[in-house]
Structure formats: structure tokens, C-alpha cells
Amino acid sequence: MKFTKALLVLSLTAFGFGTVQAKDDIYIPVVSKGYQHEFWQTVKLGSDTAAEELGIKTSFVGPADETQINQQIQLMEDMMARQPDAILLAALDSNALVMPVEMAKSKGIEIVTFDSGVNSDIPKSFVATNNISAGADAAVSLGEMLGGKGKVGIIAHVAGTQSAVERAKGFTDKIKEMYPNIELLDIQYSDGDPQKAMDKTIDMYRANPDLAAVYATNEGATTGVANAISSMNLSGKVLVMGFDSTEGIIAFLKAGTIQGFIVQDAYQIGYQGIKTLYAVLQGDKVPELVNIPVVIITKDNIDSPQMQSVLNPFGK
Amino acid sequence: MTTNTKNISDVKTSTLSNGKILNKEMLMKFAPLISLVLLMIFFSFGTPYFLNTSNLLTVALQTSVIGIMAIGVTYVIITAGIDLSLGSVMAFSGVAVGLAASIGLPLWMCVLAGALAGLLCGCLSGFLVTRGAIPPFIATLGLMMSVRGINLVLTDGRALYFQDYPTLRYISQGSLFDVIPYPVIYLTVIALISAYVLKRTIIGRYIYAVGSSEEAAHLSGIKVDKVKMFVYSFCGLLTGIAGVILTSRLNSGQPTVGVGYELEAIAAVIIGGTSLMGGIGTIGGTIIGAFIMGILKNGLNLMGVSQFWQMVAMGIVVIAAVYLDTLRKNMK
Questions:
Q1: Most B CBs within 10 Å: which of A2, A33, A57, A70, as the mutation test of the B interface?
Q2: All domains of chain B in start order, with CATH
Q3: ipTM surpassing 0.90
Q4: How many C-beta atoms lie closer than 10 Å to residue B149's C-beta?
Q5: pTM confidence score
Q6: Using one digit for the tens of pLDDT, what is the confidence trace for B112-166?
Q7: Is B306–A61 a contact, with Cβ atoms under 8 angstroms apart?
Q8: Co-location of A85 and A72 in the same domain
Q9: Nearest CA of chain A to the CA of B230: how many Å?
């Protein structure tokens, strides 16, 4: 039996040597961080549209949630088995994903990263919100609202991912530079899970009853923080500066639980990501960093047409 | 009616005497292997990217981590025990490697630290099950939660990186003759050794005996506690090794890694024909079970099926496997 088993496997493997795939269409899959947040859904809309306009094939995959780093590595490996021309990647961990990126290079597959990059020179470009300046913008806005003093807590999302690191750093550096009287608490991580973010915010408040404001670095964290503040009836007493937009977050802003939030143009990130990769494949020179601008939405400007178009790229 | 005799010679006579049972019995025994072949045929038609050496080697690489853990827990399950702490222990070993690296120990000591961390947790489980007389499910469940917590405490929730150890990644990312990934070699070696111990050594016989009937084993002079200590420690050691390989693959010690891996490993063992009731099981079956899961994931990825549907598919496969297992037991 063991012999037949071995023979079977060997013959199946032998088949593989002769397999040849003919490729005419350009194929650029997107490996995102997952589907947990509306952000990624919007990125997908952007990347799908760009692919349609360029007449190329694309697909959008991601791990089940943003802590599944091993799963993302496996996804990269499996996507590479489909022999794409290039891959658009948002790395869950900037070090762990270096290996699949190097593997892609050895197979002649071009890489462009978006939202969160890797510690490697291989990607031809990085399409993202400038997370450091976005964090700084949030700091300026919140600092003004607080009048330059008070205790501020930070609820970030996933500790190893570049976007979290930079959004927190941009914020803290700016606060220290412009508002030295603001006291910053230690950064807490929520893994992008609204429930964890909510629990951590509640605990933060209990430990610091004089808490003046909380800054959240992504959609899940913001939702959790807002839920916490609203459940403790502290809307308006403890200020909230969030990141990313959803229907829920917009509603919180209108209700006064959130005072402001940063909106990334998720659609543009996906759109420009695919366009940039296409340009790379055509042999064009592309900028190393493609910066997609952010806006800060507050109660004052939410109804302006410009802000509305960023919030709802496809109209309502 | 059905006395669950797990005596090997009994099975042999019953298969020889009745032609009808021969066919069903054989089918049951080879069900895992047949399923694996069918799955591979399915994916060969489902996507042109599946059936080639490069992809199959990738699958083997991806399966090796769960495979090694599954081999370890096969020992435990054969004794009618269970170990739910595998995922947390795997992360713990990664954290141990990271901590050893952070104090500047040479690479081989860091790797050893990882393996020993797993062994330590295994011994702890064994201790709780034997001396503490705590049911394995509860003991390892508690360990699963506490060890996960300890990982987060030791690392503050953040990953540990290995900037000063550029060679760590070659443990998992290198390959023999530039073709066969090292983890596949590790899996093969560990599988061969584990199978040998199980089939050809006295401790192996004792493991099956304890699983078949603890009472009878005890009465025939087998030190049941020692056997249990052995299987849990062995499982812990293998989980530690799997953790080191994963750490090398991720090039980081991630405290949050491995959530749910224990269920995958146990599923692989069950699909491979090992019974949760103990006394039956083979390493070969476990390997097949692990590959069924690995190929399922890889094939579905290649066909573009979402992660969520993949989870549904895996659940269905596990239930089907256990159902077949129940059918087979009722036939005896």
C-alpha cells in the first residue's frame, strides 16, 4: 500500500513538470489586510474600477482578520502560484511579509504596497495616506479643541502594522511639539476590534477620571472608543478624534460623541494602486511614494459638498 | 452488541472471514487517502495552477507547521486525551525564541529555547492531567488561556523581531538542493521517528494500551501516569518545534499567532482516522489528514474562494471525517 501511495503521488507530481499556462491578460491581484472594515471594501471598489478601465484582470483577497499574519503569507504564496504579473499588497506586518515579497521578486512579479508597507526596497512604490502627517493633522485639530491642555489617551489598532505605528507617532510627535501641556497616556492596542477598543477605553477612563480626550487610529478603534464614550454618557465631556469613516462614525459625529475624524480616500488608494502597478508593468517610471491626501471631518464641515464627495465616492 | 475490541488480530480475522466486511473495512481504512487523492484530482481540474511541482511543494511547506503539531497531538489523542493549548504554546515558543534573541544568545540557543518552551508547557499539561487528575480538556483549556495571556504579558502585545539574526529565516525559508523546503524535511523526519516510536517500541505499545483501556493497562502493570506524562511532553516538544519554524517563517515572534491552530491540528488527526476515544490512530493517517486540510486551503485560494467560505468548507470536512469515524466504529 505504501508503495502504491508513493507511486501515485510521484506520478501526480510528474504531471506538474509539463504544465504550461498561456497568459494573455495582465493579472494583478490585490492582497489586502482583510474584509473587517469598510475601508477595504472601498479600496476594492477603487481597484476594481481601475482594472476595468485598464482592461486587466484583478481579484481581491485578504485574511479572515487583521491578526492572521501567517494566513496572509500563505495567501501571497498561493496568489503567486496563479502567476500574476504583479501584486498590490497591504502588509499586516512590515517584517514578516518581506519574505513573500522577495519570493515575488525572484519570480519576476512586481510589487507595489499600499496602506502599510514592508521593510524592503523591492516594492516599486508605496501608495498610501501619509500616515505621519495624518496623525499630525489629527493632533493639531484635537489640540485646538482641548485648548492645549488635558490628558489624552490613544487607542491604536494592530501593534506591528506600519499604519498604526505611523498614525500614533505622527500624533504624539506633533502634540509634544505644539502642545507640551497635554499629557499623553501609554498607547493601547485594540487589534482593530471594536469590542477590544471599547473595553480598553472604559478601563482607561476608570483609571483616569480626568481623561480629556481619546485619539483612535482606525475604523474599528474609533467605533469602539465612540461606543465606550457614549455608553458612559461622556459625549462631549471626553473628546474623541477618530480615523476612517463609516455610517456609524458619521452618526456619532452628528450626535456629538465624536468631535472629528480623519478620512482617507480609500477609493483613491485602491484606484491609484492598480494604476501605478500598471505603469510599472509598462516600464514607466513611478514615484516611490504616492501620497493620497486626507481630510479632517468635523461637525463644521461635514455637510460641505467637498467633504460629502470624499465620504460617499459613489453618491448615496 | 458492539464490544469495541481494538485488538489488531481480531480485526484481521474478521476482514478475512467475511467478504462484505472486507470491502467496507478496507474502504474505511483507506478513506483518508482516497479523499486526499480525490481532492487533488478535483483541484487539478478546478484550477490550472494547482498541479505543478512548485505549488505542491508550497502546499507541503504550508502544511508542515500544522503537520508537526498534529503528529504531536496524535500521541495524546491515542491515549484518549486531548490538548487544546497547542496554538498558545506555539506562540509561546516563538516568544521564547524572541526573548532569547533579545538578550543576545547565539541562534542555536534561541532555537533550543523555543523547543524547550514547548516542552515545558507539555510537561505542565501532563502534570495537571496525571498528578492533578484534571480532565485533559479542562487542563489544556486553562493552559491555552493562561499561556496566551503570558505571551501578551511578556511582549506587551507586540511582536519581537530579529534584526540581529539574519540567518533565522533560513530555518524555514531555505531549501534542500534549492528545491525541497527545509520544513518539509523536518516534517518527514519527525513523522518517520514518531511513527517508528509508535509502532516499534514498547512505549508505543503502552500508548495504544492506555488509550484502549486505562483500567486494563494499569492492571497489566503499565505505569499509566508515566505514559501520559510522556505523550503530553512529546506533544509540547513538537509544538515547540512547530513554533520555531513558524517564527522563522514570519521572521518575528508574534504573541498573537496560532489562534485556532489547535483545532486545525486536531481536525487533521481526526480526518486521518485517529479516534477521539483513544486506542486507534497512525502517524500516516495524521499526515494525510494534515495534507487534506492544507490542500483544501491551497486549492480554494487558487480558485479564488474567500477565506470565509474556506472556514465553512473545513468545518464540513471535519464533521464528515468524524461521521465516517463513527460509522467505522459501529461496524466492529
A1: A70
A2: 64-331 (1.10.3470)
A3: no
A4: 12
A5: 0.78
A6: 999 999 999 999 999 999 999 999 999 999 999 999 999 989 998 788 888 888 8
A7: yes
A8: yes
A9: 29
